[in-house]
């Protein structure tokens, strides 16, 4: 045991060959530099998933990136979500919305829209919850401002 003890102490004091970089002390009150737009875009996931809580948000995306919007809705009442405003040159809708209703009728469900950022630019994406045959304002609206950078 006597021969191993000094070796253990030496290894413990030298760091045992770890690859960890030495830590610098953090100064109190020093803020990290502000995040650039490029750094913010680098942190955006490949598919941006949005829902009711994202209403009113600004959403930065890259060309080719997908946006999936899922909102609660019950199509058995005649109401459904519709795209009211969007620039398809900037944000292309991919197919028809997918409706998932929970049985029985009137129990609720959701509507899912899929979009792809087509080219650089900005567009409001505004959806309305309405009955297509009625000429009234939507019962609800949801919108985000999409910036393709």
From TrEMBL:
PROSITE patterns assigned: PROKAR_LIPOPROTEIN
Keyword tags: Protease inhibitor, Thiol protease inhibitor
Proteinase inhibitor I42 chagasin domain: residues covered: 61-146
Domain of life: Bacteria
Keyword Ribonucleoprotein carried by entry: no
Transmembrane segments: none
SUPFAM superfamilies cross-referenced by the UniProt entry: ICP-like (SSF141066)
Name of this chain's protein: Proteinase inhibitor I42 chagasin domain-containing protein
Naturally occurring in which organism (per UniProt): Actinocorallia longicatena
């Amino acid at each position: 045991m006597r021969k191993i003890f000094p070796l253990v102490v030496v290894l413990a004091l030298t760091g045992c060959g770890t690859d960890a970089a030495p830590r610098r002390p953090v100064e109190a009150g020093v803020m990290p530099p502000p995040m650039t737009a490029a750094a913010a875009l680098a942190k955006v996931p490949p598919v941006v998933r949005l829902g009711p809580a994202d209403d009113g948000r600004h959403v930065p995306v890259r060309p080719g990136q997908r946006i999936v919007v899922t909102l609660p809705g019950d199509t058995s009442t005649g109401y459904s979500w519709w795209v009211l405003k969007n620039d398809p040159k900037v944000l292309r809708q991919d197919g028809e919305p997918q409706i998932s209703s929970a049985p029985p009728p009137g129990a609720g469900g959701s509507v899912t829209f899929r979009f792809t950022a087509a080219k650089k630019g900005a567009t409001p994406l505004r959806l309305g919850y309405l009955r297509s045959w009625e000429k009234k304002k939507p019962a609800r609206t949801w919108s985000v401002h999409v910036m393709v950078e």
